[in-house]
């Protein structure tokens, strides 16, 4: 951009250092996953894909991947439905009380998840939701709501309220206005929220450690156990797959945003 | 669409209060079938609030709104079947021109074939047929405005409401679209209610103008009648420009009176049937700048005034002069430039003259 200050050497150096600090721990996983050794280490005599093979053929790993995926999908549906309705409701009513509700909805982001997890453990027990698919879906779905509320509220902030008036003036009922005018305008926000809610559930560990044990064994949980029990490089391979998957989701999010702006 | 009769609307003592603030205060107004009525006023005069009350987006605090005699005050906007063109148009950005125009028909559950035929007719009406598949952001301001018009007319609305429909356009386009809008009104024969703060737009398009100020209806009537016979200082000043001359009424008789101001006596003629003010009362005259002539040597008029040019501006079509007079202070006069050998200079002595029918007595505005 013309007319702006150029960054100095120090600023530029700091920026690169920060970027490196963010990316390097992720990149180190890659050579580790390709190690030819049988323990968590860097490759010594050459690279090997054996650990990827292990992961993609082992029923335990595949089962966990599938379980994590279905939980994440179900939790995302829950987060998106509740979060979108909440954001639209707050936006439509738009009073001081709704500001409070919006802040309340962000609580799962603010409160440490271990505190949340202890709470869930206490009252999921009597409800019979411990170590159940439904229990994890509820836990992940509820804590995913903030992401959706944030992205949908942002989308609604740029929504011209006269469009709603125009639709009403032309005879549209509330549900018609919602379906044909409001939702299409905020769809990119909903999709963004969905992607973040999905990622949130997909890599959530702390709550799963508390409320699941044997029947529900998600992917992060299996990595965690693998680290604790044996230093199997298969974990690094899983991590690489996870990173690729997350990257794909984020790229989808970007592409969607670009399309809605363009 | 062309054979439909317009509907009549009446406002009865409509008020809208926000706390102790009266946005609209006891406004009563009749809008005839097929009439083009403009609500004109400065910002904050309540004109948009009235339009929104007619549309159903604002619930009046008191009073009622009737369509063809039936009370529609409690009806929500989606049940009123009124077309509306919003300020800034409020086109749906994610829909093409066709989808925008088809929206009110889709809402009403029309079949695809019926929808297509009506949309095509509406787009032809505003000459936008070739832009059917564009998105609003790919259209110019004038084209967007026409899409908004087509969308507001496509479902055979009982009324067409226009909220400052031309304010977003540049001056030249505005003049063009004023003519188009007027022609469209003639073609569709519906009742139009337009809101604007632009007096030129109001004068050029409307069958009737209602002038509002501070939430009150000040005066309404045909554009010519309002311009020629303003009843209050505000109307004379807001609709066009005006000089204001005050003084004491003398020689009051049917058909006219004289206004005494210091040493000068101004002759005022009244139209038939207008009662003159009583002798000895204070009166205020509105005198349009274009009704003042520059008198050549030896020529006279009902009223003659001597003065000097303070400043002048050339406007192409004419000169706008500020003239200092001893008797009445500063006077504004507009003279046509063409066919006039007049060459103004500052300090130039001039003789002004005007007809006794030119000045109109107006009331001071209520505080």
TrEMBL record, chain A:
This is ABC transporter permease. InterPro entries: MetI-like (IPR000515), MetI-like_sf (IPR035906). Residues 65-253 form the ABC transmembrane type-1 domain. The keyword Chloroplast does not apply. It comes from Neoroseomonas terrae. The chain crosses the membrane at residues 14-34, 65-91, 103-124, 136-159, 180-199, 234-252. It is a multi-pass membrane protein. Keywords: Cell inner membrane, Cell membrane, Membrane, Transmembrane, Transmembrane helix, Transport. The keyword Membrane applies. Its main location: membrane. It is found in: Cell inner membrane; Cell membrane. Belongs to the binding-protein-dependent transport system permease family. It comes from the Bacteria.
Automatic annotation (TrEMBL), chain B:
InterPro entries: AAA+_ATPase, ABC_SmlMolc_Importer, ABC_transporter-like_ATP-bd, ABC_transporter-like_CS, Mo/tungstate-bd_C_term_dom, P-loop_NTPase, PotA-like, Transp-assoc_OB_typ2. Keywords: ATP-binding, Cell membrane, Membrane, Nucleotide-binding, Translocase, Transport. It is an enzyme of class 7 (translocase). Its EC number is 7.6.2.11. It comes from the Bacteria. Residues 9-239 form the ABC transporter domain. It catalyses: ATP + H2O + polyamine-[polyamine-binding protein]Side 1 = ADP + phosphate + polyamineSide 2 + [polyamine-binding protein]Side 1. GO terms for molecular function: ATP binding. SUPFAM superfamilies: MOP-like, P-loop containing nucleoside triphosphate hydrolases. The complex is composed of two ATP-binding proteins (PotA), two transmembrane proteins (PotB and PotC) and a solute-binding protein (PotD). Part of the ABC transporter complex PotABCD involved in spermidine/putrescine import. Responsible for energy coupling to the transport system. Belongs to the ABC transporter superfamily. Spermidine/putrescine importer (TC 3.A.1.11.1) family. This is Spermidine/putrescine import ATP-binding protein PotA. It comes from Neoroseomonas terrae.
